[in-house]
Amino acid sequence: MKNNSVSIVSLGCAKNLVDSERILGELGVSGFDISFNSEESEFVVINTCAFLKSARDEAEEIISEFVEKKKIGKVKKIVVAGCYPALEGHMLLSKFPEIDALIGTNNIGDVVKAIKNNRSSISRVPERYLYPRIKATLPHYEYLKIADGCNHRCSFCIIPKIKGRTHSFQKEDLVKEAQSLADSGVKELIVIAQDITQYGIDIYGKVELVSLLKSLDKVKGLSWIRLLYTYPSNAMLDLIDYIKDSEHIVPYIDIPIQHVSDKILRNMKRATSKKDIEFIFNSLKKSNIAIRTSVIVGFPHETGDDFRELKQFVSSYETDHLGVFEYSNEEKSGSFSFNEQVPDSVKKERLEAVLEVRDLNAARRGERLLGKELPVIVDYYDNGIKRFVGRTIYDAPEIDDVVYLTGKLNSGTICNAKIVEAYPYELVAKVKNGVR
Ligand code: SF4
Hints:
Layout lengths: L1 E9 L3 H16 L3 E2 L6 E8 L4 H19 L5 E6 H6 L2 H5 L5 E3 L7 H7 L23 E5 L1 E2 L10 H5 L3 E2 L2 H13 L4 E5 L16 H8 L7 E4 L7 H11 L3 E6 L7 H6 L6 H13 L3 E8 L6 H14 L3 E6 L17 H26 L3 E10 L4 E6 L9 E4 L8 E10 L2 E6 L5
Parallel strand pairs: 1-2, 1-3, 3-4, 4-5, 6-9, 9-10, 10-11, 11-12, 12-13, 16-18
Antiparallel strand pairs: 7-8, 14-15, 14-17, 15-16, 17-18
This protein binds iron/sulfur cluster.
The site of iron/sulfur cluster has 9 residues, from helix 6.
């Protein structure tokens, strides 16, 4: 065990990963020895996710593991951070008395006190300061969290209860951070929030996403800017126009729709309709912008007809990437008390059915890309298969498809490559020219 060393276990989404990098950054500038190996560190911070029961169960499993390690002296202090303390407050301390301190999602600045003085802090007041970061992603790509919290009130979602209303970071601070990331070798900047199309509404009184993107487009050294977590609202149309003219924003959008049946969208309290979604998807397709979306099956009151409507939609729109989730009846969500819950067996059937459509879409996507020459970024070399693994401009890291390449390449290289083989979710390409 290295003295004064601390490591972090980062659970959940990319927004949590950014918070984990900031927690490490704050500890690093406060004199702690940062370790990426929890086996050797004196202190551990577990940055939790809590928006689904399965995520809370995972967090409790990890906490239990470290409680056992603490009992045999393999770790001195356990700090639990993030969404679980933010949602459940001090409940975790009574459930796991071995935990030394808790910090919420708005308390990154309090992590030092948490470790040094076992002082817990869970505040509802958003932090607006961009703490220094210690990178935990591959050198050439990084997430830029432009805001957190959410003003929507989707009935199945408890994130607003965890993170509060939308709170954006100042444009100047974000551009400065983007420039320092680019200076440190980041080529692909991935813009995230709970819903990036709400950016600025709290601090500028109106949506300022396109204005922020115009500034990010001028950041020197960035090659690609990728947009995740949008919402099918009117703000999408300006965004699509700007993506078409932008120099660095890649032709890719992540836009979770959750469902397309108007009855279900109303019950989900989604501020959109099937007609709106179709209009946005048609605009994206006309602009050759790749679409990642996600849907929920088995929401209360979902009939066979509602489900067939959803299945038909994902089949006919053949999005590039599709996340499919079974409805999880979350105790603190608005839809928890809805009667006519869909039986688990039916949820499973519907999940399987949509996954089959997704596999077909993935195979057809491969056929569409076969023979095409595309910009590809190289992520790493896989010793097992003796090939480089990368992604096309239409694929986000960690969640989308991969490309296998051979040749004199390096991690972070962006090159043009011809797709010579295509399989569902995997492509093989031959590097053409213009390695950069
Ligand atoms: S948009 Fe809806 S699903 Fe997404 S974080 Fe906000 S409330 Fe949750």
